[in-house]
Design brief:
Distance between the termini: 94 Å
Radius of gyration: 30 Å
Helix content: over 70%
Number of helices: 20
Structural class: mainly alpha
Order of helices and strands: HHHHHHHHHHHHHHHHHHHHEE
Oligomer: single chain
Shape: flat
Strand content: under 5%
Number of strands: 2
């Protein structure tokens, strides 16, 4: 019994010792690679990488995080042989750290690297992005990659390798994805802006978040414009109308085709009898929020704003998609704005923002209505001009939540502030630091700047 106990003890000591030695070895190998990589000394880190992943592949996730940065550095320096190495890094990370790895995101990153370095045909490059998007759409969030994905589809159409319908379908998908990401960012940004405007000081962490949200919204706004620009004349009315006229008789019982065709003609405001035929057929086959919305647009074009409003309200009640519901609210708001019913228009612009927080155009329209009401809001010249401060606040918010109109919105805000009372006016009237309340439809108040 004593002999067996001694042997067991020796075995445990040996096993423990071996494990300790292995851990020490991995720690040494890890340090040799990670420390120089952390300092961006990639030439010093590279010689130790292969031995580390061969002998200690599960030493640390940091191994693969720094390896990604290292190989991207060498690729940027022009060493395309490292592209295959980067691909291996992603595969190893997925193999050894699956719970901490988003496969779709890595596929997207790899697709972008191959595209940037002109690896493969355009079709192969497109298929790489397509596979990544379909693997995990939620993680496909890079504005640059979203643009590249769509841009390749247009290039393939121009080369005769993709049908135009595929390009249009992908356009819808990419724009919807961009607007989804904008919505999430704008919603988070709005919460911080509301907190800030209520007089609560943001923490340093919240300030960083606010700046990041604005930066990312600006990037998505730029990409949305680039996607529209890439689609260019392909989706102009002179191309769309003959395309859908040609297919109408064969597709008139295909509800999905009718929806897409009517949607694209509507988005481009194509003035054609075909639009009426599409909408009527769609409404006959499947009365819906979409068909009611299109009938509203037709009534608007005919100058029948009352009928248009009825259709828009029907559409708003039936619509479940936030982006499409926002379009309906926008149309209703525009209907009231054109009639001069600014208070009602504002309520629908704000409904639009509730379902689509990144709808900066709603804030900008409100800003313009407020500015146009200057002469009817306030008892004195000073008070009437003070309304421009309120208009500028709305224009500022438009710029912050919607990168696609930020430049125009900031210019508008600046122009309105120039029309507001200046320092000399504030001093002469003795209004510094006072609050002015508006009793007209605008409501609310502004605080006059202190001198």
């Amino acid at each position: 019994m004593k002999t067996k106990a001694i042997l067991l003890s020796l075995m445990l000591i040996t096993a423990f010792g071996s494990k300790t030695l292995a851990q020490e070895k991995c720690a040494t190998l890890g340090s040799l690679f990670i420390e120089p990589a952390k300092a961006k000394n990639y030439e010093g880190a590279l010689p130790h990488y292969d031995k580390l992943v061969a002998e200690c592949p599960t030493y640390s996730m940091a191994t693969y995080q720094y390896a990604e940065k290292m190989f991207k550095y060498f690729i940027k320096q022009g060493d395309n042989s490292k592209i295959a190495e980067l691909d291996k890094v992603y595969n190893l990370r997925m193999q050894y750290y699956p719970a901490k790895t988003k496969e779709g995101e890595l596929m997207m990153k790899m697709a972008q690297v191959k595209y940037d370095n002109e690896m493969g045909t355009k079709m192969e490059q497109f298929n790489n992005f397509d596979a990544a998007f379909k693997k995990d759409e939620d993680e496909f969030t890079s504005p640059k990659s979203l643009y590249t994905y769509f841009s390749l589809a247009v290039d393939l159409y121009n080369a005769g390798e993709k049908p135009i319908d595929d390009v249009f379908d992908l356009y819808d998908v990419v724009i919807q994805k961009i607007e989804k990401e904008e919505g999430k960012l704008a919603s988070a940004l709005t919460q911080l802006l509301d907190k800030q405007e209520a007089g609560t000081k943001l923490s340093s962490k919240e300030e960083r978040k606010l700046n990041a949200y604005e930066k990312n919204l600006s990037a998505y706004g730029t990409v949305k414009g680039s996607v529209d620009g890439k689609l260019g004349q392909l989706a102009d009315c002179p191309n769309l109308i003959p395309l859908y006229e040609k297919d109408f008789d064969n597709k008139k019982d295909d509800i999905n085709w009718l929806r897409r065709a009517a949607g694209r003609l509507s988005a481009k405001d194509c003035d054609t009898p075909l639009f009426f035929k599409l909408v009527q057929q769609l409404h006959n086959l499947e009365p819906s929020a979409k068909s009611a919305y299109y009938l509203g647009k037709l009534a608007d074009k005919d100058g029948d704003s009352s009928t248009a409003l009825d259709y828009y309200n029907q559409s708003a009640e039936l619509e479940t998609n936030p982006g499409d519901k926002a379009k309906v609210y926008y149309s209703i708001a525009e209907n009231f704005r054109k009639k001069g019913s600014y208070g009602k228009a504002r309520s629908y612009y704000m409904k639009m923002v509730e379902v689509k927080p990144s709808a900066g155009i709603a804030y900008l329209k409100i800003a313009n209505m407020i500015a146009k009401s200057a002469n009817s809001c306030g008892g004195t010249v000073f008070e009437k001009r003070a309304i421009y401060w309120k208009a500028a606040e709305y224009a500022d918010r438009a710029a912050r939540v919607d990168g696609s109109i930020a430049g125009n919105a900031r210019s508008t805000a600046s122009a309105y502030r120039e029309r507001a009372p200046q320092k000399s006016d504030i001093f002469t009237e003795g209004m510094a630091g006072k609050t002015i309340t508006f009793s007209c439809w605008v409501g609310g108040s502004v605080r006059v700047p202190s001198l």
